[in-house]
Amino acid sequence: MTTKYLIGYLFLMLAFGSLELKASDWKTLVDLRGNWSFTVGDDPAWANPNYAVDDWDQVIAPRQWEHYYEGYNGFAWYRKNFGVASLPQTEMVSLFLGYIDDVDEVFINGRKVGQSGSFPPNFETAYNQERHYLVPVKWLKREGNVIAIRVFDEGREGGLIRAGKLGFYYDLDQSLMTVDLSGKWKFSTRDFGNMHNPQTDDEQWDEIFVPMAWENQGYSGYDGHAWYRKRFIIPNDLRNEKLYLVLGRIDDFEEVYLNGKKIGGVEDLDGYSRFQRNDSYQLFRIYPIPADVLRTKNMISIEVEDIFADGGIYEGPVGIVKEGIMNELKDRMRWEEDNGGWKSFVRDLIRLFD
C-alpha cells in the first residue's frame, strides 16, 4: 500500500472470530420496546400524527403479529407516542427497528424517514435486512412525537419480528467529529460524466442520508456503482491543522475525491484488486487530508461499488477530525489491546499511525 493512500482502514471484525467490533458507540435516547398501537389494513392518513388511534389494538414489539392475528398476511400499521428527554447536539440520530417481515415504510411526526423493500404490485421483500434509519434532530420534540410504521407481509411471519436494538440511539463517536458530515448528501446511480469535478452540476441528483445503507432509502436491491457528494466549509482556524476524513464503513469498495483530487480508495488496499477482497465492507475508513487540497469551501465526492446485499456508506461516524482525535482513537485501540481485545491487527494499526 503506497504512502499516498495511507489509510487507517482498519478494524476487520471477522478476523477475530466472535469478537464484535462496532465503529459506533451507541447511547440509548428512546427505548421503543413494549406496547404499540396496531391495526390491520392500509390508509395513508395513519401516518398523520394527529390521527386518532384510540380504537386500535395494543401489541408488543418486537413480536410477530401472528401472535395476535393468526395467519394474517397483508398490510398493517404500528403507531407509538414517545418523548425525548435530552436532544443531542448533533445533526442526526439513528432509529433501529430490527428485522421487519417483509416491507416497511417509516414516518416520524408525519415525515417519511425511510423504506426497506418494495410494496405491491412490485413486491420485493426485505425480511433479512436490519432496519436502520437516520432522523434529523430538528424533526424531534421533547414531547409529543409519533412514530408510524406501515408494513406489508406476504406470508409466514409478519411485522416487527425481532430486534437487537429497537429505539432511537445517538452515536457518541459522531460527537468526536470536528466537522460533522452526517446528514443529507447528494446521490446518483447514474453517471452523468465528470462526477468528481466540483463544477459538474448535481441538481439532477437525488438526496440521501449518510451514514445509512441506500437499500433503506428507496434503492432496494440495487447493486452496482453510485456516487455521493457533500459540500462543506472548513473554518479558518482549522486550515493549518492536520485533518483526517472519517467515512465509517462502506459496502463494498470506494474511491474518494476531495475538490476533484483523489485522496484514497479501498480498492488500493494492500495491492488487492477490488474483486479479490471480500471483507472490505468490514473496514473502518479514515483518510488523511492533504493540506494542499483543502480550501475554505470544499466538496467530497465518492464513487461506491456494491457487489451484493446492502450498499453505500452504511455506518458512521462520518466527519473530519483533527490529529488529536486520531491520538484519542489510538489510545482506545491500545486500551482494547491491553485488555485482550484486537490482538496483532491492532498493534499493526497503531504502528501504521505512529
TrEMBL record:
Source organism, top-level taxon: Bacteria
PANTHER family xref list: BETA-GALACTOSIDASE, BETA-MANNOSIDASE
Name of protein: Sialate O-acetylesterase
Species of origin: Sunxiuqinia elliptica
Organism ancestry: Bacteria, Pseudomonadati, Bacteroidota, Bacteroidia, Marinilabiliales
